[in-house]
Amino acid sequence: RRYAGRWRVIPKLSTELTVEDVDGDPHFDVLVLEAYDTIASQEHVVETVTDLRQRGFSFDAVISRGFETWVGPTSAPPAEPLTRAERVLLGWGARSVDRAQRQFRQRRSTLHGDLGLIEGLRLAPPKLWQTADFETTEPARTESMLSFDLSDPGSYDGFLLHNRFLFRKGVLDTSATSTHWGVYFTPLPLPQATINDAGYVNLRTTVVDASRPSSFSLQAEAAGTTSVVQSF
After folding, report:
1. For a Cys-Cys bond, which of 6, 112, 152, 195 suits 182, CB 3.0-4.6 Å?
2. Beta-carbon neighbour count of residue 97 at 10 Å?
3. Measured between alpha carbons, how far is 41 from 47 in angstroms, rounded to an integer?
């Protein structure tokens, strides 16, 4: 009751919101981005904020005020934590640890909570891959090429991505704090002999439209050999 008359619900998507819906006043005290994904841009937060600004809306503050997504090479998440019953339910059979492990190497997955396990999978320190600052009108930035020297080339299977959500008073790092978003595994396998000989791996990113950073493709490369392309 303390807030009676101070709040009004407008049941519209942000893409359908008009100035008339807000009594001709397009300025808001706070814009809250309530949806993020395991790769921050995947929920189209950048496009949403840009679209609102282009249609004349403005904000004193945005929560979160921006994000960073970091990426680094990794070995595949292990299948061992799955129980025998879980493997049966997932259709891999009771005696299927090897089969499950092969499947884990080939599927995207979100790792929740086990930060020690995640850190143990990394083959090089992560690097900044994508960033957005919602308190400016600057476009989001995505690095088109990142190179990593591998601590254990024989263990390489793909890349881990995680987010750092930026606030006025602090940062939420999903590689340091257990969250629903977790850390995301993207398989980008290369021939084992190539990785062993090269000792490094490059990550290539293609963003066709810089104004739409949620649509991109990833590809690994080492010594001139490339992986299949993963499109998002």
Report:
1. 112
2. 16
3. 9
Strands (E) in the chain, as ranges, are 27-32, 58-63, 66-74, 109-111, 127-133, 141-142, 145-149, 158-167, 170-173, 183-187, 200-206, 217-222, 225-226, 230-231
pTM for the structure as a whole: 0.87
Q: Tell me how far apart the alpha carbons of residues 101 and 152 are, in angstroms, rounded to a whole number.
A: 19
Return the structure tokens found at 229: 């392309």
Residue that has been written with the tokens 């303390």 in this structure: 2
pLDDT tens digits, residue range 82-98? 677 776 777 766 666 77
Residue 199 region, left (φ>0) first, then alpha (ψ -120 to 50), else beta? left
CB neighbour list of residue 57: distance below 8 Å, 6 or more residues apart = 17, 19, 26, 27, 28
Question: Which letter does DSSP use for residue 77 in this model?
Answer: P
CA 194 – CA 199 distance, rounded (Å): 8
> b/e string for 64-90 if b means 16 or more Cβ within 10 A?
bbbbbbbbbbbbbbebeebeeeebeee
pLDDT in tens, 155-178: 999 999 999 999 999 999 999 998
